[in-house]
Each structure stands twice: as C-alpha cells, then as structure tokens.
Structures
1.
Amino acid sequence: MSKAVQFYNYGGPEVLKYENVEVGTPAKGKIRLKQTAIGLNFIDVYHRTGLYPQATLPSGIGLEAAGIIEEIGPGVTDLHIGDRVAYGTGPIGSYAENRIIPADKVILIPERISDNQAASMMLQGMTTEYLIRRTYCVQPGDIVLFHAAAGGVGSIAIQWLNALGATVIGTVGSQEKAEIAKAKGCHHIINYKTEDFVERVKDITNGKGVNVVYDSVGKDTFMGSLDCLKVRGTMVTFGNASGPVPAIEPLILNGKGGLYLTRPSLAHYCGTHADMLASATALFDAVSSGAIKIEVKQSYSLSDAVTAHKDLEARKTTGSTILIPEH
C-alpha cells in the first residue's frame, strides 16, 4: 500500500484525507513514480473547493511533483527505471508517495536541478514562461505590473522580467513580503493594504500606465488593474485568489483605452509534450544561467497537507512550497 491525499467532497482544508491507496502497475504508455517532492500551488485550492470541479469524487489533488521512475509500462522507450523526472501540468493526483502517470507528462530533470527545486518550480515556472514570453511577449523597456509579487509565480516572474529588461512594479500585502519582492529585483513595490495601487502606478508611470498587468488575485484587483494600463495595454488575469472576476461588458475595455483582455491557463500553452518540453527547457536554461534562483521557502510533510493548505490560504507562505512524502 501507498499513501496519498484525497478528498471526497468540496470544502475547506479539512476535507483532505491522508490515506492508503492501491497504485498498481503502469499500463501502456505510462510509468510508475516514487515521488520525492510535491509542489503546493493555489490551483490546488481551486480544485479542493470546487471552483474548478472534478469529473468524479473522490479525487486526488495536486498537479506537480518530482520523483524517480520505478516501473515502466509497455511502449515507453525514451525513459528508464531510475530516471529523475518532474511534471507540472498534471494529471491531478500529485499528493502521493507513489503514482502512475502518462510518460508524455514528465520531463527529465537536469543534473544541475535538485528534486526539491524541480517540484517547486515546474508549474509556477512554466506558468511564468508562457505569461511573459507568449501571452504577452515582454520586451526590453516595457513596464509591467505584477500582483502578488512575493508569491510563487511572482518570485520567479520578477527575476525573469529583470533578465528581459523590463521595469517591474509589484504589489504585496505586508512589509515582510515587500522585502522579499525587493530582494528578487522588483523596481517599485506597492503595499495594497496601505496604498492605492492604481494611484501609485499612475505616479510611477507619470500617468501613462503600464504595458501589461499580470493578475492572479482576481476579484479584488481586477477593475483597478484595468485602470493601470496604458492605451492598448494588455490585461492578463490568470488566477482567482480573492475570488472569480465578475462579468464585464466589452465596451468597458474600449472606454479604458482599447485594452486587450485574456484569461489563459497552463493547459492552453503546455497542452502537448512538445510545448511542455519547450517551456520546461526555457525554464531550466533560465535557472541554470543564474537569471532565476529557485528557493524552497516552506516544506511540509505530505501527511500535513491540511496545515499547508491553511497556511497557503491565509497568505502565510511566500515563494515556493513543497510537500515531502514519508515513504
């Protein structure tokens, strides 16, 4: 028997159950992993609460992990037992000691990257990659507003945006998080709890606004974010930490400067193995070059997933967080 975290109904962290599961043998095109580190991400909360409902319950949870291949199913020819691999696009169920997963969902981990780093950066790092290189291709000299700048995606994005030659304005919710954002290279930091971020952005940009806003907060910041954009600016809403964004009329975008609005997800940009490999390779290269430093800020036992979710939702975590299987 192996241990995994599952939930039988939607709700708060307390619905997560750490229990015995049967893992079985990998079928054609699949592999069995002994997982060494598991990524904790806010999308896990959306799955647990039912904001992003599952096809059936009970369900596993988690989209990201690193591990060692311990068994290979028929038809898998490019991977071997003992290979270190990681994944960040699911399928759901990464909160587990062992699991079976399609072989085309994993990426070989370079020797220069540790398992803990890989597990903490695949989803967040590939999310950053598609946001700043493909959803809106950031250019040298662009001014960027990035909400939740001390979070997992934000911590990676600030560093990468610096490497691209952008000026980064970041929002945070505390002085502690402001220090983190500053250390990562954020040029201008706004504490949204004590400052009006719209007014501050206008001051910083001399009233012109920013080229692009990246907003994972959702409901609480969405309309203000639109007011931070320059004419023909791009609004990228990619999360719902404060709740889903309310419906808006398209004419609002016209009235605020002919804005572009998009709501992407990792699945749209890394839906094929080729796309995922290209994204992960760009991420690994950025980390290896020193442009991005991946630091695991919090670590919990897999059996303590309930506490990890409580801390995540209470905004007590910063940067990357992992869960460690006990085996």
Note: Residues 311 and 317 are 6 Å apart (CA to CA).
2.
Amino acid sequence: MSLDNGNEGAGAPADRLSILPDELLLHIFEAVGRNARRDLCNVSRVNKKYHRLSDAVLYKSILFDTPELHLTFSESLSRRPRRGSAIHEVKLSYPSSELSQLALDTPVHGSYLDPKRSNSISRTLSIMSNLEKLDISVPDMLLHGIGTLFNGPFDLACLKSCSLFYQCANDAYWDLRENIHIFAHPTLETLRIRRAKLDERGFDHIERPHETALKHLHLIECDINDDSLGDLLELPEALEEFVMTQVEEPEPELEESSDNVGDYILALQSQAEFLETITIDHPTLTGRKALRMREFGALKTLRLNWDYQLFGKSSKKPRLHSVGLPPIMDTLEFFNELGSDAEVTDLLLATIEQKDIVARTWRTMIVVEGEDGVSKEIKAACKIAGLQLDIIGAMDEDSDAESD
C-alpha cells in the first residue's frame, strides 16, 4: 500500500493508515523499524504526523559507539529539540582512543547543566526528559562530567535502569564517589555498577535524600567498603535484590573491601524486611562467625560461595550461637564444593536434619559436584528431610544407588 498526504482530489490513492489511532500506528511503525529502519525513515517523510510517530520509534533506543556520533546527534537536537523526549534508551560505549579529538565543551541547547562543570555528553543526556534506561561504558576522563548529571535537579525524571562502568588505565577501579548521587535518584529501580571503588566515607549525612525506588542493586567486581555500603542501603524504600560478585584473584588487589562476608550481611540489615534475593559470589570472603539472618523476613533465595561463609570456619573457641537461616528461605545455593571444613560439614548436616525446625519452607539446596563429590551423609539427610538436592556437574545418580 502506498502512502501519501491523503489528497484524494489530486487522483492519488487514499492513505488508509491515516484513519488509525496513533497507538496502533506506533505498533505498525515499530514492526517496520524492526525489519528495516531505512523503510521507516522513508515513511517518516510522508507527512508531519508520520514524521512525529516515526521519530518516536527511530529514536526510542540509541547506541553511541563513537563520540562523533554522539556530538552529531547533539547538534541535531538543537534543531529538533523534541527528539530528545522521544528517546527512552541510551547506550554509550567507546574506548579511550576515540576521545583524542573530542571537544567536550561543545554547547548543548536546552541543557540546565553548568558548562564549566559538565561535558557535552552529560548535557545532551540531561535534555532527554523521557529517558528510562541509561548504559554507560566510557573512559574515566568522562567520570566527573557525567557525574554532574546525577547531582540534581533530576531532569531524568523517568529513569528506571542505569549501568555504570568507566574504563581506567591499567584496569584500575574507578571512584564511585564521583557518581554517588545516582543512589539518590528518586525513580531509579535497577542499578548495575562495574569495577568501582568506594572508601569508608559513604554518603554524607548533610546531603542524604528521601527514600528512593531502588529495587535491584548489582555490584560487579567492585571494591566497596561495607560501612559505606550500609549507608547507601538506607536510602531505598524497599530493595528486593542484592548481587555482589568478584573474581577469585582480584586485580588490582582490593583495598576498601572487608574480608568477612558477615560484614556485608550486616550492611544489608536496613533492607532485611524487603530483600527477596541475596547473591554474594565473592570467593575470597571468609566467614568468621555463623550468619544470623532471622531478621531477613522476605528472603527466599540465598547464594554464597562456600558453606563456611554461612556457618563460620572452625575455631578453637566454642560456638556460642548457630546459624540463623531466613524464616521463609526456599533456596540455598553454594557456588563452590562442600566439605572443605569438617566442623562446617557437621553443622550443615545437623541443619538439614533439623530443617523442619530451623527452616520449614526450605525446599532446594544447590551445590557443585567438586572433586570428591557430595558426601553420602548429606545426600541421605536431604532425602530424609524432603529437601531437593540439585548437584551441578553430577553424573547419573543411579551409580550411587547401586553402590549403596
């Protein structure tokens, strides 16, 4: 079907699409754009209405993989400022080599940010009033300038998801303090931070905001002080998911992080009544004492590296308290093999045997096979207690049954 401006008097075919509501036209244009953006660009030239609706699709999601593309688009916004409001998703991703000839002081029409403190990239982002998702992976020379975007006022009033990663020389950790006000953003629900560091100063009380909407926080290969993390986690109204990961041999060496998993559980205490999932995939963390998590009343899934992170390593001192599992925990997962500490193994076995008392809703335990496999005692205890044992990497269990 050909499209025109609907002028049937000139003998041209009628534009039957024009009678459809805008919402339906948007669905049609999205389908066209998925198959061929060039065709949608052609449709946008038919008339003003199609141009407006096509822009809403063409500029909904933008990838800036070179700074030149970003600046070209910034210049186009000065001519057509309404395009800024059409953008819902932006990804900035380019290496340091691309910035050698970038003019960061380029003026951006309509931005409220101070040109002396911000850069052209953050000023362009500031006029995207309907932006919902922001993914940043750029060199650290842009760290401070983009950080001013989060200092307020919050023109990004619709932002719901944000990922932050700044590329540093020698693969060093970037300073989260330069972007720390992202934690104060009122509408943000999902925040992913990669390879950042944060010292013990935390969030200054003088600048503490009201409660925020943050529900999902992922700290990927970060070097984060546990006390500062505790300060930041007082801000969300109801955090539902916490994920913290680190490699087996962090490089550079961690300077701000605690070496005790219990310190991070303590940092999560302010969100104990809301958290549904805790994942701490941090193999270098030890466990000096058994975790006490009875206050985590909403927690259904707990994932750790080692059994001793939950029960605490063996010591010469007598144990004065036992592990306190979350009251409605459904799934417990260990990313590494069981059995590296004999006392801990005995405690795990006793906990399984007392499942109906210590964790009535506990249904599944996930472990890895390991070199020595999972002990027959653990398997038998799970079977008697009605606890489903999922062993990642295990062969067919029929061989074990035959050997019994």
Note: DSSP finds 14 helices and 15 strands in the chain.
